């Protein structure tokens, strides 16, 4: 819980009473590897904070191929925020890549925090902005770099994920086949 509190305090000031109120609204969620935090075709139920594990955001393209577009690991928020807030059906999946533990907030509790704590919307807005900037920062180079450079960038950006994430998901994230990824890995050893 300390990691969660420290994370949100990076984005604004909260007193002990406010922190206790927020923490009081949390519930724990445990997902096994390959279970879903959120699924396409369903309304997202939670905003989560990852205590342990890695999730990926993925979707199926028009050819039916599974595409991974981002990974999120410990001490970060995870949600399909726009669809969660609007309570509309998601178009992508958020899947546990490893066994995961989360602190979660239901829509009712999230709204209650927002309606009770002055400045909470500002804090969550800054958190969301930070998450979006990180995602853009990580994804932008993937458009212009060759496959080897993309892989080396992945290792640099996600040093702890290589041993925790299946190569098929990494290849999908990098926009290459698993065979190409294997060749790249062999050539840089």
TrEMBL record:
Transmembrane segments: none
CDD domains for the chain: CAP_ED
InterPro entries for this protein: cNMP-bd_dom, cNMP-bd_dom_sf, RmlC-like_jellyroll
Stretches assigned to the Cyclic nucleotide-binding domain: 30-113
Organism superkingdom: Bacteria
Name assigned to this protein: Crp/Fnr family transcriptional regulator
Protein species of origin: Mucilaginibacter roseus
């Amino acid at each position: 819980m300390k990691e969660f509190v420290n994370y949100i305090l990076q984005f604004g000031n909260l007193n002990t009473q406010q922190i206790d109120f927020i923490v009081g609204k949390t519930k724990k969620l445990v997902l096994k590897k390959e279970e879903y935090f959120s699924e396409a075709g369903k309304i997202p139920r939670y905003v989560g904070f990852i205590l342990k594990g890695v999730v990926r955001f993925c979707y199926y393209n028009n050819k039916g191929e599974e595409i991974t577009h981002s990974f999120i690991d410990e001490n970060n928020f995870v949600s399909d925020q726009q669809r969660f807030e609007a309570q509309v059906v998601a178009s992508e999946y958020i899947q546990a890549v490893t066994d995961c533990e989360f602190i979660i907030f239901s829509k009712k509790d999230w709204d209650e925090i927002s309606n009770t704590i002055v400045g909470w919307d500002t804090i969550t807005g800054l958190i969301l902005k930070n998450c979006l900037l990180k995602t853009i920062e990580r994804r932008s180079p993937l458009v212009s770099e060759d496959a080897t450079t993309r892989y080396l960038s992945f290792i640099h950006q996600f040093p702890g994920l290589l041993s925790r994430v299946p190569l098929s998901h990494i290849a999908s994230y990098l926009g290459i086949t698993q065979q190409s990824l294997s060749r790249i890995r062999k050539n840089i050893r």
